[in-house]
Known about the structure:
Radius of gyration: 22 Å
Order of helices and strands: HEHEEEEEEEEEEEHEHHHHHHEEEH
Oligomer: single chain
Largest sheet: 12 strands, mixed
Helix content: 25-40%
Number of strands: 16
Distance between the termini: 60 Å
Amino acid sequence: MSRKRWWVVAAVAVAIVAWFLISSPREKRYLPPPPPPVEIRTLSPQDILTWEEDSTRPVVLVTKRDALPGGLSAAMVPVFVDWQASDLEQDDPVVILRNVNHGGNPIEGTTVLRSARLHLNGLKAVDLIMVPLGKGGRHAATHHMQLRFIFDEGHPIELLDKQIVGKKSFNDLVLSWEAWRPPGSDYSMLKGMLPNRYALSLRAFSGPQRFLEDALARRPWYGFHLRMPGGQEGLRELLKVSLVLGDGVARHETGRILQEGEEVWATHAPRGTLDADQAHQRWEQLRRKLSVVKVSDDPWLNLPPQDRSYQTLLRSCASMARYAVVTAAARLAARGFTDGLNPQHMPTPQMPQVEPWMKEIAEADLGGIFLRAPTALSYLLHHPEVIPSKIPGELDDMGLMQRSGEKMETVTWSLKNGTPYPLTALVR
């Protein structure tokens, strides 16, 4: 290749990387015009206490209005594992989850959070789901990535509401790592390069709920069938790893919110029912219930403080899903489950560190972005695992994808081309 042609290729590559870094997902072009701005309503401490103390009562939120003390969206609150009510040691291990998103109406802008019971013996498959955030389908510039855990008909995921109108169970759970931010606040890929710009939240959805929300935004699902060593034991390990990671991050972040909110609670405690000492005791009780619970000594599952916030490349939806899969595979291999694994391509689970250029580019002007684009390009070339579209191929090289002959098994779902659910599951 001539030197002139090489420079043209390099210039084009730099321009592409710069565009990738300055462009955020343009979800608005696929949605109806946004409604007028909604005045933010911060949930009272009493609201939060009621929410936590009654696991059988669904919590109905206005998605773009309701906020927690401190300003983060109440609708984006992470999933919690109720470790006290769960039992992982019995023959039929059971996990109780709080804050599962099911039954909300994305058109009217409501989110409904519920508690649910999972029977781990019923887990039969796991899909890695890529969701394009722009034009180009599977080859779009950016993607959201999430894990879909599918349960058999004999062991559905059970809702724990005392009074339920309609179906009382569903068969798949979607776990989605997201940038936790204030209600109604748009996500910026560039601002997300700063490690503390957004909090990190593992959100849980019923499959039909998440598919409905994506489908209404005209975002199809591209599914890749995962193959974990150890068969069903491997699938259960991936679910447990994902939940332990998400629960740990959630409790640390919630602890920070509660620490800052104690003065607010003391000021706004219900008058006539609680004196100052009782108010303090109630807040301490809530803080203890949501405090960090150490369920494993494995350092891969106990993320240090610097790795508990969102970061566009290193702790994104895709990077965290990949980390969960790789960690589960490594833990299985340590226990002797190595069937199908390719040890030459198996990395050691680790969280990469934020580099100086990542912080600089988040606050740079257009000229600064182009100046740092070659560094970004070099990083992406040496770390393709941070690019969502590269992750399925990487996991396939590790032996973690189901194959049909020479190709990975994949499936595409959309309202136009067919859905993974009957229509009745999407209309409640």
